[in-house]
Design brief:
homodimer; alpha/beta; 2 domains; 11 helices; 35% helix; elongated; transferase (chains A, B); MRM3-like_sub_bind (chains A, B); RNA methyltransferase (chains A, B); rRNA_Methyltransferase (chains A, B)
C-alpha cells in the first residue's frame, strides 16, 4: 500500500475529461455504496480509501490499492464532500443486439446533454428493469463522473450503448418505437407493449427530426387538469420515469 | 438606464446566501423564459438585460432597469452560460390554510436537501396541478438560485410554504396523509384520493420518525420485475413524479 503521489491525484482529476477516459478506457467512482456496488461488476484498476474503509473490506480485488488520510482523499476527490473511498474501474464493453428491442423494453436517448439527467435515467431504468439504453453519439458520456455518481450503482446493471440512433431504429423492422409529442395520443388510453423502444429527446429541443420520422407510436403524457396553464414541459428524467412507470403498470398491474 | 456598478454585482452575488435573501425578501432569476414568466407574477426590484432583450420587451415594470453588455452580464450571472437577462424579484407571501389539503392534492417535503431536487419537484407539481407544497423548516430554501432555475417557471404558480410538518399534519384531522415505505401497499392496487397530502422524505434518510407516525396511508412504488435486484431507491424527485402521475391517472383516466 502506498499513499497518493501528486501524479496519481493529477491522473484522477484528468478523468473528468472524456478524452482521457476514452484513451484509458476507465472511469472514476466515489463513495462506499457506489464503489462497493461496482467492485462486484467491473475490474478495478486503482482504489484509494481510508484505513477504516479498508479494514472493513479486507478482500477487495484491485490492481493497486492506496491507504490514504481523509486529507489526501479530499485532494483527490471530485466531490464536494469526499467519502472514504474512490476507485478507477475499467469501462465494460457491451454488444448491442437489436433483438433486445424485440424481447424487452429498451430506452433510446437522443442527445441528452446533462450528466445528472443521464445518471438519473440510468438509475430509474435499473428500478424499472430496463437493461439496455441506446444513446445517440451526441449524448453526454455515461462515464462522466457526475453521471456515474447519479446512477447510484445502476451503471453496474444497465448497459449503455452509443450508436447512430436513426440507423439503429431502421434495423428494428416493425418493432414498436415510442416517443412523446404534443400531438401524440394520451398514454393512459393506449395499450403499451412489454417490448419495444422508448425514445426520449434532448432537454431543450426534444427528439430530432430524423429520429421523429422513425417513431411509429406517438404518445403524450397528459398534465392535470388537462389544458390548464402549466410550465410547458417536464424535465426529461421525470418524463422518462412517468412513461416507464406506465409501461410497467400496464404490464404487471392493469 | 445605468450599467452595472461593482456594488450591484456584489449585491447580486450575495443573493446566493439564504441570510441575505431573507433580510432583503428577494430572490434572483435568470434567462428570458424564466424572467419572462416571473415578471407576470412578482414585483421586480431590479432587472439587467442586453439591449437586444430590452428592445423586445419595451413594457416591463421594474423599480430599476440596467442595460448591460454581454460581458457585464457574465460578471453578474451565477450561471455557467449567462442568458440575456437576470432579475431580482420580491418574495411572495402566502397564507397556509389546512383547508387546501381537504379540497385538493398537496405535497409535503420532509427535509429535502438538494436545491435541484426541490426545483424539479416544483416544476412537476405545476405540471400535475398541485398548488401547494408544504416544506419542513429544514428543507432547502425555495429561493436558492439553483432551485428557482430548476422550477422553469413553476415557482410562479406553485405556492411553497415552510412550517413544522408534524404540527401541520396534526391540524388536518382525518385527511388522508400518504407516504412511501418499503412495507407500504402497492400504489397501483390502492384507491388514491383526489385530495389529501403526499409526504416525500429526505434524500438519504427518507421520512423522519415523527412524521412517519402521522401518516395514515402507507404506499409502495413497485419496481419491475418485482423483487428483482435493483438500486434500492429512486431519486426523490423521480419518486414524487411517479406517485403524482398515478394519483392523477386514477382521478382522470382510470
Amino acid at each position: 500500500m502506498a499513499s497518493l503521489s501528486k501524479n496519481k491525484i493529477k491522473y484522477i482529476h484528468s478523468l473528468e475529461q472524456k478524452k482521457i477516459r476514452k484513451e484509458e478506457q476507465v472511469f472514476l467512482a466515489e463513495g462506499p455504496k457506489l464503489v462497493g456496488d461496482l467492485l462486484e461488476h467491473f475490474p478495478c484498476r486503482f482504489l484509494a480509501a481510508t484505513s477504516v474503509w479498508l479494514q472493513k473490506h479486507p478482500d477487495i480485488h484491485a490492481n493497486e490499492i492506496a491507504e490514504v488520510s481523509q486529507d489526501e482523499l479530499s485532494r483527490a476527490s471530485l466531490l464536494k464532500t469526499p467519502q472514504q473511498v474512490l476507485a478507477v474501474f475499467e469501462q465494460p464493453r457491451y454488444t448491442l443486439n437489436p433483438e433486445a428491442v424485440h424481447q424487452s423494453l429498451c430506452l433510446a436517448l437522443d442527445d441528452i446533454q446533462d450528466p445528472g439527467n443521464l445518471g438519473t435515467i440510468i438509475r430509474l431504468a435499473d428500478w424499472f428493469g430496463i437493461e439496455h439504453i441506446i444513446c445517440s453519439q451526441n449524448t453526454v458520456d455515461v462515464y462522466n463522473p457526475k453521471t456515474v455518481q447519479a446512477t447510484m450503482g445502476g451503471i453496474a446493471r444497465v448497459k449503455v450503448h452509443y450508436t447512430s440512433l436513426p440507423d439503429f431504429i431502421r434495423s428494428l423492422g416493425d418493432a414498436p418505437v415510442f416517443g412523446t409529442f404534443l400531438d401524440g395520443k394520451n398514454m393512459y388510453e393506449q395499450p403499451l407493449s412489454a417490448t419495444g423502444l422508448i425514445v426520449m429527446g434532448n432537454e431543450g429541443n426534444g427528439i430530432g427530426k430524423e429520429v421523429e420520422a422513425l417513431i411509429n407510436r406517438k404518445l403524450y403524457i397528459p398534465n392535470y387538469p388537462q389544458g390548464q396553464e402549466t410550465s410547458e414541459s417536464l424535465n426529461v428524467a421525470i418524463a422518462t420515469a412517468v412513461i416507464c412507470a406506465e409501461f410497467r403498470r400496464q404490464a404487471a398491474w392493469k
